[in-house]
């Protein structure tokens, strides 16, 4: 079992208040977040961006392990996750994480690529925790 932690601090109300987030590794160390960073694209982070980063990195690592088990090794795996936040009654809800992958993997055919990317999409721990639609657009770069 592995436990990881992060912490958040907040001062003020929901719209004008300000917060900071810190991660165990200190990659984020009192990084600002608030209404303006979440809904108005001001500098700082937001929960959806952090979910997107977690999902993209988790999926990519899961795929690397899928490839390793198949005796393959990627030259490059580049994944983007776009997390969608929508109004839901009086609040909001994350409804989707759209993964887009471009991969360079010597010696793999399209069928094996589709199989392994599908396994990584459903098998990565972040996919398992999300209560949202997960899509994957995966492109194998043969060049």
UniProtKB/TrEMBL annotation:
GO biological process, one term: response to oxidative stress
Protein name, per record: Osmotically inducible protein OsmC
Compositional bias (Basic and acidic residues): 1-16
Source species: Methylobacterium haplocladii
InterPro entries given in the database record: KH_dom-like_a/b, OsmC/Ohr_fam, OsmC/Ohrsf, OsmC_Ohr_Peroxiredoxin, Peroxiredoxin_OsmC
Region (Disordered): 1-25
Any one GO molecular-function label of the UniProt entry: peroxidase activity
């Amino acid at each position: 079992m592995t436990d990881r932690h992060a912490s958040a601090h907040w001062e003020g109300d929901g719209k004008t208040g300000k917060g900071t987030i810190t991660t165990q590794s200190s990659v984020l160390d009192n990084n600002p977040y608030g209404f303006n960073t979440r809904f108005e694209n001001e500098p700082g982070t937001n929960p959806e961006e952090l979910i997107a980063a977690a999902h993209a990195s988790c999926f990519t690592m899961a795929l690397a392990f899928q490839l390793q088990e198949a005796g393959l090794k990627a030259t490059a795996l580049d994944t983007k996750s776009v997390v969608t936040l929508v109004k839901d009654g009086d609040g909001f809800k994350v409804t989707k994480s759209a993964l887009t992958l471009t991969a360079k993997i010597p010696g793999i055919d399209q069928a094996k690529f589709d199989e392994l990317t599908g396994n990584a999409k459903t098998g990565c721990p972040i996919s398992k925790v999300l209560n949202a639609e997960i899509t994957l657009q995966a492109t194998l770069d043969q060049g």
